[in-house]
Amino acid sequence: MASTPTRDGPPPEVTEEQLAAMHDDPRFIDLKRRLFRFIVPATVGFLAWYLLYVLLSAYARDFMGIVLFGHINVALVLGLGQFVSTFGIAWAYSRYASRHYDAHADELHDEIVHGRED
Fold it and tell me: Which residue has better confidence, 116 or 66?
């Protein structure tokens, strides 16, 4: 038997049959697709952006050393941009999940674990 965590109290017991039924449910497959629609492009985009930053730091030192103003150069701005983009992706994922994912996942969870449809 597997268990699924909940917000209130101990996790309910979930049988292997319930888990198998969930994995075969078209709504569960749709949930996985919805999740991957965000995760894959966001991951590829961020990794490309990070790799660009690393490659520029290693091979384009003159470009990265261009002073923009005062003691601020391109490398510092792009480095801080890594932090900004990380928080931006986390914020965007939170919004995406709450709008396109969470309600459907909770509905499917309640139906499979508690045997009810709302």
Answer: 66
Q: Token pair for residue 9? A: 């109290």
| Torsional class of 97: left (φ above 0), alpha (ψ -120 to 50), beta (otherwise) | alpha
The total number of residues written for the chain in this structure? 118
100 is written with which tokens? 């396109």
Cα pseudo-dihedral 19, 28, 35, 6, rounded to 10: -50
Closest by CA position to 89, among listed 54, 38, 50: 38
| pTM (predicted TM-score) | 0.71
35 contacts: CB under 8 Å, gap ≥ 6: 97, 101
